[in-house]
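HUMAN:
Sorry, I am quite new to this. Are you able to go through these amino acid letters and fold codes? The numbers rather puzzle me.
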Amino acid sequence: MKTIEIGPLKIGNDQPLTVIAGPCQLESADHALMIAETMAQTCAANGAQFVFKGSYDKANRTSLSGKRGLGIEAGLRVLETVRDRLGCPVLTDIHDAEQARAAAQVVDVIQIPAFLCRQTDLLLAAGETGKTVNIKKGQFLAPWDMDNVAAKVAATGNEKILLTERGTSFGYNTLVADMRGLPRMAQTGYPVIMDATHSVQQPGGLGGASGGQREMAPVMARAAVSLGIAGVFIETHEAPDTAPSDGPNMIALADMPKLIETLMAFDRLAKADPIRL
């Protein structure tokens, strides 16, 4: 069972829960700092580890009219500001191999989007940075398919890998989360993360944008954490209904303190008597 060290954090399936949280899309430095500070304080108060997440570009929007974000230069400056002022690790996603080196100059964790998780050149470029690489499982993959995906990054000599479940395509415009996939991916030895908010997304469900079942995101988080995993990924915003992307499946920032308190109770229980497969 691997433990990934990111600064003072130790991320592993047998370590205290790590919360990866932030807005779907970076909006400004002040906005990012507000969310990051709130989440850092909430996690610290409840004994959870915290990584701030923010995307500088949403390259896979449902339609051309969707807002994409600040762009790589401005977005990385925002992430650098959060990391420097608050001291927390930061995560962002990349969309092509050329972005890996630039992102690695700032972020602690490089994330591979689910749609791109089998792109060999992208995985190799991320691995070669030496940064921790969080790979989201594609909606089209089985949990055991992630063995080959992780092996591509590990082939670079970098085994600082996180594997994230975010739901599987189930018919049109919806996803289903099979909780059996979490312990199955944990058999790789790598830390496993549950993306509680994207797993309740309804891709393209609003026609020109994705819908979601926000009320089900805490359910997914509680169910996953009760299995004893490394972390949970949650997108949050102070006003999800007006967020520039993924609002329908995001959890309101005001609701996060109670949720994190609850998740840590599940985490302690699960890790006191871990599942053995």
About this structure: The longest helix spans residues 29-46. The longest strand covers residues 231-237. The chain has a mean pLDDT of 94. The two ends are 13 Å apart (CA to CA).
